[in-house]
Amino acid sequence: MRSLAEEARRAGRRLALVPTMGALHEGHLALVREARSRADHVTVSIFVNPTQFGPGEDYERYPRTLEADLEALRRVGGVDAVFAPTVEGLYPYGEAANATWVTVEGLTDGLCGRYRPGHFRGVTTVVARLFNVCRPHIACFGLKDAQQFFVLRRMARELLTGVELIGVPTVREADGLALSSRNAYLSPEERAQAPVLWKALQAAEAAIQRGELRPAAIVERMLQMLATAPLARPQYVELVDTETLQPVDRLEPGREVLAALAIYFGQTRLIDNVIVRIPSPTDR
Ligand code: PAF
User: Fold this and answer.
1) Residues 40 and 121 occupy one common structural domain
2) Of 123, 163, 166, which is best to mutate to test ligand 1, by the most ligand atoms within 8 angstroms of its C-beta?
């Protein structure tokens, strides 16, 4: 993979990487299209990264659908390389004996980081390795995982990787449910109630647009909306600053806020978010 990438670089091509864990859906294909529009050599990596799953999470049962993924990439077109390494390929000493980690402090403390200890360390470590092997100029990530995007962007800047990160808007089903490989785990009843995540986020956005500046009132509004879905069990519902990812005491007109939530349906954990610019009184 590295010699292929180096050769493309030498030929003056602009390289894009789309890192994925496979089980590709329209959301991933939107990343590929975005990459294609910004670069002239696109690599898609497919690797279910063991170090970002905690004990008891779904590493073993995470869907692995390589043949279908390759077919989907052939259909969408414009992909120059698919990099699907083995665990030993990316963790030469094995994942259990891995000694070299990349950690981003602060931004990983809250939101998903609070409930998935070690998750972001696994993500930053594997993405740094993918950058080293695939040598991209740009890398595209979905904004459904907004915290992941902000953490990786910080890592890419602070490690001076030279890789520009592109955040691509979330692709949704017609009823608002964000596309996710984990949607496949939902029972029909859970699937029917799952659009409540998007409804809660829309309620937050509407409250902010109406001029609500108290985070607690907006969170309360989201919780009320979530309570209309009896199978939804909130893990967190928060409003944080998009720079620091820390909770805000009061919304400041002109700044951006990230409304984010993680909700369980049975054993399935779904996340979603919206980034809202807080209007000043003169905008309304
Ligand atoms: O978002 C994902 O699919 C994964 O976290 C990533 C970025 C491919 C790293 O394993």
Assistant:
1) yes
2) 123
